[in-house]
Amino acid sequence: MAWKWKKGEHLYYEDVFRKLQEKKVSYLLIGGVAVNLWGIERATGDIDVAIAMDKNNILRFIEAVKELGFTPKVPVKPEELADPQKRKEWQEEKNMKVFSFQHPDNPFVLIDVMINNPFNFDEMFARRATMDSKGIKLSVVAVDDLIRLKEIAGREQDLSDIQALNKFVKGK
User: Fold this and answer.
1) For FRET with 169, which of 85, 94, 130, 136 sits at 20 to 30 Å CA-CA?
2) pTM score, whole prediction
3) pLDDT tens for residues 39-86?
4) Core vs surface per residue 80-101: b (16+ CB within 10 A) or e
5) Tell me, what DSSP letter sits at residue 7?
6) Would you say 131 and 146 are in contact if contact means Cβ atoms under 8 Å apart?
7) Residues 6 or more apart from 30 whose CB is under 8 A from it?
8) Residue 106 contacts by C-beta under 8 Å, 6 or more apart in sequence?
9) d(C-alpha 136, C-alpha 2), whole Å
């Protein structure tokens, strides 16, 4: 299945989520899309995910995004993401936090994958919310875990997201 984006159309990520489901990728939506799915409307241009970092899951993820036409934003082979030594090298030498895949038809259409989860993925995955969108099951990080991730990132947008999530989702 090819990515269905065309110049001038609104961007939909259904194909990405459907493909991740089809390939049985263990993932969590963790960024702006997750904030939106928890009911806080705000602009976001990419998909931020954490994935289980076992080699088979990473390779299924890579297969999914490649089938949709995505390529690495940096000039490396996507399969290098499955190499823990390579990820460690990227972190230490390039201060890389995410591995970005972009679509060649629109370089602003990005999927950012955390290369080192700052948490126990399996525990967070067990707490996730599974949301349905047009028959696609989305794995969305739990609100408390999303807030924790936003605290770690600590950018201005993250702090704003925390405030909105606490107020409108958690009622604090």
Assistant:
1) 136
2) 0.89
3) 998 888 789 999 999 999 999 999 999 999 999 999 999 999 999 999
4) bbbeeebbeebeeeeeeebbbb
5) T
6) no
7) 48, 49, 50, 114, 141, 146, 149
8) 5, 7
9) 17
Per-residue tokens: 147: 């807030």
Q: Are 140 and 128 in contact, with CB atoms under 8 Å apart? A: yes
Considering only CA atoms, which of 55, 29, 52, 56 is closest in space to residue 136?
A: 29
**In the Cβ-directed half-sphere of 20, how many Cα atoms lie within 13 Å?**
23
Check the CA dihedral 150-37-141-28 and report its sign: negative
Compare 24 and 108 and report the one with higher pLDDT: 24
Tokens of 5: 């984006």
What SS3 state is found at 117?
Answer: coil
Class of domain 14-142: alpha beta
